[in-house]
Write a structure and sequence with these properties.
Length: 267
């Protein structure tokens, strides 16, 4: 494990695989290195050609946190990783991490290209929108010491799982790590903003993004996720859309790595 220090003094922990052009993998809500081995596997598969950064977003895993939270702080975290790499990086974002990658590019960080996997976007009535007070509810649960309720709200309202499925998850080993970092779910809620409101994407949020963008979704994923990927690709003038055969919201590293390699070589 290595670390960098972000602009506000937060320690960001990461593993790096290989040498070459830098590729930074950005997790979505609740994920970090200890619970998502897929990023490390992707890094290992690409280590012959790329230096892949797999990091814990602030407040998760072995990274520290500094209040108050702001999306700008997470963009600064990415900037610190790019500084460590010493050259413009390619960013890959899972789910809400894809929106953070877009925000980093809009902030004019030295980025060569973006790959966005199933960003959480709902622009129509394909599924219920997030509650308008979603972030406020999350904050209130955390403030009350009820991280379990914050995690439940994320699983039902954002991920769209039925309550009975969440009840089953709470009896599994998977649940404790989610509850542990449930305070960061509101971070991703702020990053999503209105992207899951059932209304068109804001015209100005990513208007500064002019670099190449590849938007991915699995062709076996939930319809709302493929629809969201299509909406993001249509919204960004420099984007192309690619459906990955046989995959869903958790794509196999052996399938994802060649897609990333091909895109990176095209830049």
């Amino acid at each position: 494990m290595s670390t960098v220090t972000s602009a506000d003094g937060t320690t960001i922990a990461f593993d790096a695989y290989g040498e070459g052009r830098p590729l930074i993998l950005i997790d979505g809500a609740t994920a970090h290195r200890a619970v998502n081995p897929a990023n490390a596997e992707v890094g290992q598969l690409l280590s012959d050609e790329f230096r892949t950064y797999v990091y814990d977003r602030r407040g998760r895993g072995q990274s520290t946190d500094t209040a108050p939270y702001a999306i700008e702080r997470e963009i600064e975290d990415i900037a610190s990783l790019i500084d460590d790499a010493g050259q413009p990086a390619i960013l890959f974002g899972w789910s809400s991490g894809a929106l953070l990658a877009l925000d980093a590019a809009a902030a004019d960080l030295p980025i060569a290209g973006l790959v966005l996997f199933e960003p959480p976007v709902v622009v129509d009535d394909i599924r219920p929108p997030l509650p308008s007070d979603y972030v406020e509810q999350l904050d209130a649960f955390v403030a009350a010491g009820r991280r379990d309720k914050a995690a439940e709200l994320f699983m039902t309202a954002a991920a769209g799982l039925p309550a009975e499925a969440v009840a089953g998850m709470k009896q599994s080993p998977y649940w404790a790590p989610v509850e542990e970092i449930a305070h960061t779910i509101a971070y991703d809620g702020r990053i999503m903003g209105t992207t899951m409101s059932g209304t068109p994407l804001p015209e100005d949020r990513w208007s500064a993004v002019k670099l190449p963008v590849l938007v991915l979704h699995g062709d076996k994923t939930w319809p709302a996720l493929s629809s969201g990927a299509q909406a993001v690709a249509a919204h960004l003038p420099t984007a192309t859309l690619n459906a990955i055969p046989g995959e869903n919201h958790s794509t196999d590293p052996s399938t994802l790595a060649p897609v990333l390699r091909t895109f990176a070589r095209s830049l």
